[in-house]
Fold this sequence. Notes:
With 276 residues, the protein is an alpha/beta fold. An 8-stranded parallel barrel has the order 3-4-5-6-7-8-9-10, surrounded by 6 helices. The chain has helices at residues 38-51, 72-89, 102-111, 128-135, 160-178, 195-203, 223-226, 237-249, 260-275, and strands spanning 3-6, 9-12, 17-23, 55-59, 95-98, 115-118, 139-142, 183-186, 215-217, 254-257. It has a single domain, classed as TIM Barrel. It is built from 9 helices and 10 strands.
Amino acid sequence: xxxxxxxxxxxxxxxxxxxxxxxxxxxxxxxxxxxxxxxxxxxxxxxxxxxxxxxxxxxxxxxxxxxxxxxxxxxxxxxxxxxxxxxxxxxxxxxxxxxxxxxxxxxxxxxxxxxxxxxxxxxxxxxxxxxxxxxxxxxxxxxxxxxxxxxxxxxxxxxxxxxxxxxxxxxxxxxxxxxxxxxxxxxxxxxxxxxxxxxxxxxxxxxxxxxxxxxxxxxxxxxxxxxxxxxxxxxxxxxxxxxxxxxxxxxxxxxxxxxxxxxxxxxxxxxxxxxx
Length: 276
């Protein structure tokens, strides 16, 4: 059985789970600035929880290509009040904090968050691994080539699937030796990858089970889906559903999405297919 421990509660990942996205940044690629006050934030989180989200991922630093860099202080000022508000209103909530800074991660966990979601895979902050081990919370290790500011300039790999498996293998081995129990991998769709790279990773996603860690897929409304169709992120729900279905069929255990209801429906239908 694949499980992770969140605040003393074992979450069974043999049944795929949903992580709903809450962007509190003004410049996120899809819903930037949409959730900027307490009322809209609480309404959106209540909606995602009622539709079936097990986790809510909160991010205060925009990681879209070319995003503006903000200071650690500004990130903390944005995110800590939101963590406190959500924990006060939803005491059982399992919050994931989307940050690559160990200080931000630690303060968010101390404020009531349950998971660290690091887009840099430990590369941006040398203290992140030790912080995750100290806190003993699930740690999502994502692959990104470069930084949000330059990652799409000219991403190159020898063999993208092999390169990522090697990178994850080294890092997960290090984390396990340090004593971290719950490690989740995220292939980082759209983070330092061409459209072709992204589709190769989606096609080969099942290979990553060799790492013996749960797999999170964050592909919701990304440009790899809408650019080939010459549509916008707002029009990419159908494409997102298609990609998430492929990810499920290749064994992804967590879907990180903007649209919880639709993700819950494909999880339910996929379960029927597997169990019929």
